[in-house]
Design brief:
Strand order of the largest sheet: 1-2-3-5-4
CATH superfamily of one domain: Response regulator
Order of helices and strands: HHHEEEHEEHEHEHEHEHEHHHHHEEEE
Number of helices: 14
Distance between the termini: 163 Å
Radius of gyration: 57 Å
Number of strands: 14
């Protein structure tokens, strides 16, 4: 391969144009190549051409690509398409623009660090090197880094994780634990050297000096930060369970860029906050900064300073309120005493206390009047009802069979049944009848019966 040859070499074939000649059309390039090949063929009599295997040509091209200064570390911008990820975990995709396509591969150990999920149609910038996949004889871009253009990879990853956790219910209000009003022991998870811890300690001691504070020092940015934060939350919960109860946790840090705050956007941190048995206040960044931890925590504080104000009451304000309540209690007590004193004086001046027998005699007189009224009413009701009863008795007497007997009539009944005889058809000759009169009764036998003639 080191033999000097006339005409073009494989490297010349691939890089037959300098940077200044890149504007030439493909037609012109092909024409120049054909002319050079013809010139080589004319010189065959001088030196016979060397025949290469496909593998040799492919490997030669790969070596030349690997040695190229530009292609060894290149940034390429394009749109993702034909994205696939088999069980191996490697990403295979095509990077394209309106003119060309470039085959790409991103191995598993590289794509594990991606902060977003690549999707077809995304506009991305990738970094890697151009080489040849010898088995297929195809050049491709081996991607080492990928970031999304436009809204940015971090922001897109933030939105993807936020959507995922929200759908799982980690943001639901029903899971939010109440923050105690008067905590005895507070756990703080943050950097031990940052301004955030100094502000929180200063404010909590000023507002509520008797509170006990436990600090779990962690890194709040960088690759090791998420694991340290997760471990600190676990240790705080374990300490609260096995030793002394921790009433509330503050997890946070001061302000920074989205990259600096990213530890609080990690899924592992969010899930650990959600799983914490101790209520958690998220205090990350400034008022305008929002992280996944803010949505999962039981309460969000805009800043670490605000978290310190939320977690403990102001003892001076409490003392002021107590004094105000004491004053109001005294005033209400004095008003009540004065009210009942005046009422007692009024009762003492009443006739009931001055001459109690007079009131008793008045009730006696009232009782007599009620008695007379009741007797008169009852007498009147008895008289009215007696008259009504007599009238009803007169009606009954008029309708009584005994009254008919008094007027000279009699009543016959057939023996032995005792059925009243109402018609000549009710008896037969030979029947025994009992005849009832006003002053007695007689038994007779029917000797003969005569039916009344109809006219």
């Amino acid at each position: 391969m080191n033999k000097q040859r006339k005409g073009i070499t494989l490297l010349d074939f691939m890089h037959s144009k300098k940077d200044g000649d890149e504007e030439k059309s493909e037609v012109e390039s092909e024409r120049e190549t054909e002319i050079e090949i013809e010139r080589i063929e004319e010189e065959k009599g001088v030196e016979a051409p060397h025949v290469y295997t496909v593998q040799e040509v492919t490997r030669y091209i790969r070596q030349r690509l690997d040695e190229d200064e530009v292609l060894r570390d290149v940034y390429v911008k394009g749109e993702l398409s034909n994205l696939s990820q088999p069980t191996s975990g490697h990403l295979y995709f095509t990077l394209k623009d309106e003119f060309s396509e470039l085959q790409c591969v991103m191995f598993r150990e590289r794509n594990l660090d991606l902060r977003f999920i690549p999707e077809d149609g995304m506009s991305v910038i990738v970094r890697g090197h151009i080489s040849v996949y010898e088995k297929r004889g195809r050049y491709q871009l081996y991607v080492e880094e990928m970031q999304e253009t436009g809204i940015g990879a971090l922001y897109h990853a933030f939105e993807q994780l936020k959507k995922k956790l929200k759908e799982e219910g980690l943001f639901d209000v029903v899971y939010k634990k109440p923050i105690p009003s008067f905590p005895r022991r507070i756990g703080i998870i943050t950097s031990p050297t940052g301004a955030a811890i100094r502000d929180m300690l200063k404010i909590t001691k000023k507002r509520f000096p008797h509170v006990h504070i436990l600090l779990a020092p962690v890194a709040v940015q960088g690759e090791e930060a998420p694991a340290q934060i997760v471990r600190a939350i676990q240790l705080m919960n374990r300490y609260s369970t096995e030793r002394e109860k921790i009433d509330v946790l503050i997890v946070g840090r001061g302000g920074g860029s989205i990259e600096e705050l990213w530890a609080f956007n990690e899924e592992s941190v969010a899930r650990e906050i959600f799983s914490s048995g101790i209520p958690v206040i998220s205090a990350v960044g400034h008022e305008t900064d929002f992280t996944i931890a803010d949505f999962v925590a039981d309460k969000r504080a805009a800043t670490p300073s605000e978290a310190a104000e939320l977690v403990v009451p102001d003892s001076r304000e409490i003392e002021k309120n107590l004094r105000s309540l004491e004053l109001r209690t005294r005033q209400n007590l004095f008003k009540a005493i004065e009210y009942y004193r005046k009422r007692l004086e009024s009762i003492e001046k009443s006739i009931l206390f001055r001459k109690p027998t007079e009131r008793i005699n008045q009730y006696r007189q009232t009782l007599d009047e009620l008695k007379r009224s009741i007797v008169a009413e009852i007498t009147h009701l008895v008289t009215v009802q007696s008259k009504s009863l007599q009238a009803l008795m007169g009606k009954l007497d008029a309708l009584s069979p005994l009254a008919i007997l008094e007027r000279g009539y009699s009543i016959s009944s057939k023996l032995p049944e005792g059925k009243i005889v109402r018609s000549i058809t009710d008896i037969s000759v030979g029947d025994t009848l009992k005849v009832l009169f006003k002053d007695g009764a007689a038994v007779s036998e029917v000797k003969e019966k005569e039916k009344k003639k109809q006219y």
